[in-house]
């Protein structure tokens, strides 16, 4: 059996995305005004992808539930996913707390809280966060309007509607089977539309990167470089050591998995949005051998409940503000922050300024760290959002493998074959060995 021919490197999407990112950085650095003017190019591409996210999440979850042999299994997969998500969030938050206490990037800043003035978007985010309680994500799950959940792009609410619809469709038995077939066909059509949209990924990455560099400049990076470097380093440690350790237990190489998803990582890097590759990620995981019903349940819910990068950011940012404003914050206070962030970090996927809103909600709930300190890191948030999105993507990829393995439906041999060769089909020599064994 011949392996499928790979496209030449210059025809692959990752090459054009890398080229576009490099061109965007140069444009923003050399001609800042041009870079700022290119903002609509990046936001239009992201919006084009986001308009398909809620339909894809709905159709995928409904199809996944419809394809499961029993509702009991749906509940089991859902519970296992949430257990893993919460464990991952706890580890990410704890690692962030350890890193910020060891390196103390805010020590020596000595910013006076009374002199910090909230303005612009930062003030709006803090205002939104102050009106949210630690339990808001529980009440926000239920939408006031089914259509409104799709119109607002609220992924968490769409998940709630999709689960109800899928369970009801499964419960009515044979009457619901035509609906499952129709959902699968509609899903295929929407994914085809997404394929057309993704052809513009290099253009979107160019516009988004040019705007970021042109608007904020390299000088912004240098001014708070210590905090940015600590965040990227901590996230890299989490991906390689923590997630790498998890995949190693499954006998899967984390570096091969990251390489397999390189196009998705590059698109996220260029657009600062992990949502831009949600459908592609689900397709890639299915090619690895993860069953569609598991991918359909774990990936969309992971985008609201499994935000490892956002969790690291929350713990780093909260303690950094305390250090920078000379606010006393002992072990007890930090553990209190961690407990609140276990909840405030949930349900923020797809919301503009979600990281800042969650941070403001945490600081407002605890009350020991001044929320106005958010202004200290507002200027570099755009540079940190890329790392949040990249880490979230890695975490959700591993989560699907873990749940599939937990359900004992993951063929590790096939996973490694795809990661090694790019094809799910056995190599000729391996196929011959398998046939000889059967004979």
Automatic annotation (TrEMBL):
Keyword DNA repair present in the record's keywords: the answer is: no
Q: Which GO terms describe its biological process?
A: L-aspartate transmembrane transport
Subcellular location(s) per record? Cell membrane
Q: What is its main location?
A: membrane
Give the InterPro entries listed for this entry.
Answer: Na-dicarboxylate_symporter, Na-dicarboxylate_symporter_CS, Na:dicarbo_symporter_sf
A single cellular component GO annotation:
plasma membrane
Lineage of this protein's species?
A: Bacteria, Bacillati, Actinomycetota, Actinomycetes, Pseudonocardiales
Q: Which GO terms describe its molecular function?
A: fumarate transmembrane transporter activity; malate:proton symporter activity; succinate transmembrane transporter activity
- Which parts pass through the membrane? 12-31, 51-71, 83-103, 155-172, 193-214, 226-250, 327-344, 356-380
What is its membrane topology?
Answer: Multi-pass membrane protein
Q: Which PROSITE patterns match?
A: NA_DICARBOXYL_SYMP_2 (PS00714)
Q: What is the organism field in this record? A: Actinocrispum wychmicini
Keyword Acetylation among UniProt keywords: no
Q: Which Pfam families match?
A: SDF
Q: Which PANTHER family match?
A: AEROBIC C4-DICARBOXYLATE TRANSPORT PROTEIN, PROTON/GLUTAMATE-ASPARTATE SYMPORTER
Question: What name does the UniProt record give this protein?
Answer: Aerobic C4-dicarboxylate transport protein
Q: SUPFAM superfamilies given for it?
A: Proton glutamate symport protein
Keywords for this protein: Cell membrane, Membrane, Symport, Transmembrane, Transmembrane helix, Transport
């Amino acid at each position: 059996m011949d392996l499928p021919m790979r496209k030449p490197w210059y025809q692959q999407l990752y090459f054009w995305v890398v080229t576009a990112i490099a061109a965007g950085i140069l444009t923003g650095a050399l001609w800042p005004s041009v870079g700022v003017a290119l903002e609509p190019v990046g936001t239009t591409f992201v919006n084009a992808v986001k308009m398909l996210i809620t339909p894809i999440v709905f159709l995928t979850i409904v199809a996944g539930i419809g394809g499961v042999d029993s509702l009991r299994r749906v509940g089991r997969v859902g519970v296992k996913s949430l257990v893993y998500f919460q464990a991952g969030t706890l580890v990410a938050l704890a690692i962030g707390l350890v890193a910020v206490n060891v390196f103390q990037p805010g020590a020596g800043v000595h910013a006076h809280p009374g002199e910090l003035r909230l303005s612009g978007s930062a003030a709006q985010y803090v205002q939104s966060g102050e009106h949210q309680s630690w339990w808001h994500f529980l009440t926000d799950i239920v939408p006031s309007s089914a259509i409104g959940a799709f119109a607002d792009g609220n992924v968490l609410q769409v998940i709630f509607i999709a689960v109800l619809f899928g369970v009801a469709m499964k419960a009515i038995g044979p009457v619901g089977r035509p609906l499952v077939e129709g959902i699968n066909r509609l899903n295929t059509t929407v994914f085809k539309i997404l394929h057309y949209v993704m052809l513009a990924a290099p253009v979107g990455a160019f516009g988004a990167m040019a705007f970021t560099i042109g608007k904020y400049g390299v000088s912004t990076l240098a001014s708070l470089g210590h905090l940015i470097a600590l965040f990227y380093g901590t996230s890299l440690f989490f991906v390689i050591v923590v997630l790498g350790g998890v995949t190693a237990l499954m006998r899967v190489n984390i570096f091969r998995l990251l390489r397999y998803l390189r196009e998705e990582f590059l698109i996220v890097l260029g657009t600062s949005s992990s949502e831009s590759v949600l459908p592609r990620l689900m397709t890639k995981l299915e090619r690895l051998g993860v069953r569609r019903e598991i991918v359909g349940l774990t990936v969309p819910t992971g985008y609201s409940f499994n935000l490892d990068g956002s969790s690291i950011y929350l713990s780093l940012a909260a303690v950094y503000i305390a250090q920078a404003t000379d606010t006393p914050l002992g072990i007890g206070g930090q553990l209190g922050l961690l407990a609140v962030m276990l909840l405030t970090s949930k349900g923020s996927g797809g919301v503009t300024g979600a990281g800042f809103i969650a941070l403001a909600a945490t600081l407002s709930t605890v009350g020991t760290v001044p929320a106005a300190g958010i202004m200290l890191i507002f200027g570099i948030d755009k540079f940190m959002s890329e790392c949040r999105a990249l880490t979230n993507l890695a975490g959700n990829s591993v989560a699907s493998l873990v749940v599939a393995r937990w359900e004992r439906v993951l063929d590790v041999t096939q996973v490694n074959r795809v990661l090694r060769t790019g094809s799910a089909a056995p190599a000729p020599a391996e196929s011959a060995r398998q046939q000889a064994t059967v004979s």
